[in-house]
Structure formats: C-alpha cells, structure tokens
C-alpha cells in the first residue's frame, strides 16, 4: 500500500516540520510543505537548505542527490496545495486551537483516504482525531529533534484509529529510515514519559542540595554511559518543555510521581529555560563558567559516603528503570519498544530494560529502598518489578 504513496504534505516548517520535509524528500517522496505566509516559507526553506548543506559537507549526500531532493520539495503558503497529498503530517505549534484550525482544514482539503498524522508531543491525539470526520485515519507520528538525525518515531494510535492506518504509518516510518514504536495515546508516549520524570528527579536532588549539578550529571553518565547527564539534558531540551511534559503527565495520571519539582517551575518562571535563554542549570553565556562547589549538607555527605546504601547514580537510575518496568507491566509498551525508544529517541547506549537486566532487579529494588529510607521517595516498586523479585528473578528478559 505504501508503495502507492507518492505525495506527502507537511504543515508547519519550523524546527520539526522543516526536518520532516527533508526526511521524506530524501527518502524519495514528493513533499509539499505549507506555512502561514511567504516569510515563514522562506524561513522553512532556509532551514532545509542549511540542513542539506550540512549533509553534503559531511559527505552524507552528494551534490546530485541534493539537487534531486530539492526537486521533490514544493513549499507554499497555500494550504489548498495539499489537495493531492496521500499522507499529511502536521507540525504546527503545540496549541489545540492551532491544531484545530489545521485539522479541520486538512479534513476538508485532503482526499478522504489520506492519513492525517500529528507530530504533537503532549496534546491528545484522540482529541485531534475527533476534530475530523475521519478519526480512523488520524494517527500520531512523533518525530524527535533533529528529525533528520534521530531514528525514533512513535506511532500513536487512538481508540478510533484503524489498524490499517497504524500499519501504514509504521511502514511509512520505516520507509523513511526510522524505527517506529507503535503505542496507544497516553501522556508522554514512551520516551518523554520516561525521560522527563527522570530529569525532574535530578532537579529534585539538586534542589535538596544532595549533590552539585556536575556531580549529578557526572554520576549518571559514568554509570550508564548516557550521552549527557540529566541537568545538561534539561538545559538542551528547554526547562519550559520539561515542565510542560511534567504538567501533562500530572494532568493525566494525578500521581505524586509526576509532580514537577518546585525548582523547575521557579526556573521557568524566571526565564531560565536553558540553552535557548543562555541560562538554565548551567551558564551558557560564557565558556569559562566555573564548576559549582559540591554542597556540604548532611544528606550530601551521606550520599557521598555511601551511607544510604546507594550512590547518586543508583538514586536516579533506579526510579528511571522502575518507571520503564512499570510501563511494560502496564502493557503500554513492550520491553523491546521501551529500549528502542530510549536508544533511538534519546541516544541511550542501552535501554532501561537492558539496564535493569545488567544491574539486576534486586539491585534496582535495593536502590529504591535506599531512596525510601532517606525519605527521598516512597518505596513503591512497579508491580512487575515486585513480581520479578518474588519469583527470585534478577532480569526481565530471560538471560541468553
Ligand atoms: N521542537 C521539538 O523538539 C519537538 C520534538 C517533537 C515534537 N514536537 C512537536 O512538533 C510540533 C511543532 O513543533 P516545533 O518545535 O517545530 O515548532 P516551531 O514553532 O519551531 O514551528 C511551528 C511552525 O508552524 C508554523 N505555523 C503556525 N501556524 C500554522 C498554520 N496554521 N499553518 C501552517 N503553519 C503554521 C509556524 O510559522 C512555525 O514555523 C509541536 O506539536 C511540537 O510539540 C516538537
């Protein structure tokens, strides 16, 4: 079926949309990208050109290929140009009123068989689908930033999505060189629902002066080989984006686990959003910003001295892993999907279930216990983790 696809429409040519246009065009699709006006079209075109230039400079694209990619891209300020799209992806700002405007229009403009996909990170795909007369053909297609580089695409189905729609969307994702992980419509999907509470936990430890930002980041990168520590990552993602995800998780689940750390909210309120504003947990306005003095309080000393029975990395990774096990136990995603999401969406060398199996379920539970003993978090292991322990197993996957 996908082989018959030829024309893809993309609405919004900002950070994500421009990358999505490029990804489809490089995979051989003819793409029409639309924006609100001529200036926005020019900005989108410049974004695509810069990215193609980088790909040529790195030897990932030849000059001839760049020419062919350009020939497959049409950019316009007229949404009606999407009248022949076989598949449309929306990447406009994360506001329901803007999505409503776009989806009611796409429903009118595109042929009845066209699948309409949204790149939303935090709005309900179900609500977006309900704006159209074809909820069975609406799907989430959640790319990661930068779209041309990151391999994960979360394919999100709602209770109304047709199985065939989901299958086509996953196949399209594969055809553009991505790794699809198909899940239901739930706040944060897989990657954000795991990543952002873990970042929030790091903010919580930092806020309680249990460790300096360098100690927190250094401990996790050393222990799990992650590309960067959680506070560096928060600055990169944007503290406002992290807070928005925490609030969406809170709204959906109403569990203390998803209460944003007060410091995160304060920093957003004061405009310290991370790299984009120059200041977040780190000072990005100068190269020679000094490292922070490690805090000297009693809890910091206890963690450093190993008194809690778990080190700093354990304290952060245990809950992160526990969340992943909970997600698998809830039947929301498989262990393979969880690991793929974190590997290909967040650059983890090992997914959280692989981390569980490497560290041992008992060690993860011990670290959760240490957190509880220090009154840093309640002791509430995921039911599936508790089940593993009761069965005397240390891994979720059977050892090879
Ligand atoms: N930025 C990220 O890291 C990221 C990652 C994954 C998903 N997302 C999601 O992707 C979507 C877009 O995010 P972004 O970061 O690219 O935003 P952005 O602000 O960079 O780009 C949005 C673009 O949409 C255009 N636009 C606004 N209204 C429009 C309309 N009615 N018709 C056509 N174009 C319109 C704007 O001019 C702008 O260029 C959001 O739903 C966001 O949650 C973002």
Give the arrangement of secondary structure elements.
Blueprint (H helix, E strand, L loop, with lengths): L6 E5 L3 H12 L3 E5 L3 H20 L5 H9 L1 E4 L10 E4 L5 H14 L5 E4 L6 H5 L8 E6 L8 E6 L5 H13 L3 E6 L6 H17 L5 H12 L5 H8 L1 H15 L8 H8 L28 H7 L7 H18 L5 H12 L5 H8 L1 H13 L9 H8 L10
Parallel strand pairs: 1-2, 1-4, 2-3, 4-5, 5-6, 7-8
Antiparallel strand pairs: 6-7
The chain binds nicotinamide-adenine-dinucleotide.
The site of nicotinamide-adenine-dinucleotide has 25 residues, from helix 1, helix 4 and strand 6.
Provide a quick synopsis of the model.
The protein is 50% helix and 10% strand. The protein is of the alpha/beta class and 400 residues long.
Q: What would your notes on this structure say?
A:
It is a single chain. This protein is 50% helix and 10% strand. With 400 residues, it is an alpha/beta fold. The chain folds into 2 domains: 2-184, Rossmann fold, CATH 3.40.50; 191-390, N-(1-d-carboxylethyl)-l-norvaline Dehydrogenase, domain 2. Strands 3-2-1-4-5-6-7-8 form an 8-stranded mixed sheet, sandwiched between helices. Helix 7 (191-207) runs antiparallel to helix 13 (312-329), helix 8 (213-224) packs across helix 13 and helix 10 (239-253) crosses helix 11. The longest helix has 20 residues, at 38-57. The chain is globular, with a radius of gyration of 22 Å. The structure holds nicotinamide-adenine-dinucleotide. The site of nicotinamide-adenine-dinucleotide has 25 residues, from helix 1, helix 4 and strand 6.
